[in-house]
Amino acid sequence: MSVPGKRNGSHAWSHSQVTRREALQAGAVGILGLGMNHLAGLREAHAATGSLPAGKAKKLIFIFLSGGLAQHESFDMKPSAPENIRGEFKPIVTKTPGLQICEHLPMLAQRSEMWALCRSLTHGSNEHSAGHHMMLTGHSDLPTGFSPNSPSRRDRASIAAIAGYAMRKRQKNNLPTAVVLPERLVHNSGRVIPGQHAGEMGPQYDPWMIEASPFHNTSYGAFPQFAFDHQNRGKGDNRVFQAPQLSLPNGLGMESVQGRLALLESMNQQRRALGHHAQVENFDRLRQGAVSLLTESTVHDALDVTHADAKDLDRYGRNSFGWSLLMARKLVAAGVTLVQVNLGNDETWDTHGNAFPHLKDNLLPPTDKAVSALLDDLHASGELDETLIVMAGEFGRTPQITLLEKHYKLPGRDHWGALQSVFFAGGGIRGGNVVGQSDAIGAYPVERPVKPENFAATLYSALGIPATAAWHDVANRPHQIYHGEPIAELF
């Protein structure tokens, strides 16, 4: 679990200095009243004002493609454009008449009745950190003092944090409302990308971070099967996808836990006598959440995906993309409301060069397979209608293909905030549907331009969060959740 740290006097996410397993086992100590900072993701989140209507979607899986998926090589191909724009890939038909997508997404093409596209999302930045902040928070404007090099508590709150806050009232258990996996998005220089935490809402509303994928500064993609380096520098990748183990420390059995809980209760009674009711109640809720995580068998099963049923592993893929989406599917089944899945570490989809072989061989195949398996699972169980799936990056890619000879042997596309395609499925989405249209070269929207505010509002609306909802700061001042209209044509 990530622990909010401090940098230059402001709260930020710092790189963990302990192993993943040590950190998660340390979380077990939280129920004993020790190291409560490991349970930040379980802190109380008051629901938004007003009652929540019964939305079509009860759960959300937000798939984020850091680096920026090329619209031309995925969901908005331009086969009639000049060669330096249309690229090397061919379009294929889907099950939806008139809808074509990339030839390297054949499994999704066969499931087009389950999903829809928005081909006209646009914002004003071509810079990674700004684009991440815009798409992960749903705000086109950057906050005052925004720094691309350091997350700050002046940043906007992430969609995951906002939705987790607003959906808390629906949570029927002590599990975290919002989870991000399998890793934080960290630049190869070591800096953490802004937009991932609760920002101005405060660290108590940060999503719960499951770090199962080790940091690597030159290798990208769905390791171990599809790991690659954008610049082919030849550095090895020996990472192991190791889901955290929520286990008690060695030598500590449940009898010891019960005994220490009894001691804590005695201490709590003394604290109550001293008038610290609010603090004690919050402590009790944290303890209950920790006990729930330790004792809930479905949570253990959800996290231990590398040892899942062989048939499931074959369908999702035995790689970080497949394991991550299988973990997300199991977590929403266990009762988590929102799961953000980062398919690849920071800038995995940043295909400036060597774009076509890397997309063809390493990026599109595991994505096609894992997302298709997720759709199949939710459809077969009857949960697709109540589980919204979205897939987006921080921006799209330039219409023109370029070659940066200093860094790459083969061409690619640069950053392009003006246009990207966004994938939607489930949660009341009308399958086989396309909203918006781009121009002839895939550069700008020419029909139904959509902003990050509309994107965020669509997610909130699908989850049944009322348009009047607000979150409240420490001074009890309301802050509106919606900053745009939902994309109504998707539903």
TrEMBL record:
This is DUF1501 domain-containing protein. It comes from the Bacteria. InterPro entries: Alkaline_phosphatase_core_sf (IPR017850), DUF1501 (IPR010869), TAT_signal (IPR006311). It holds the Pfam family DUF1501.
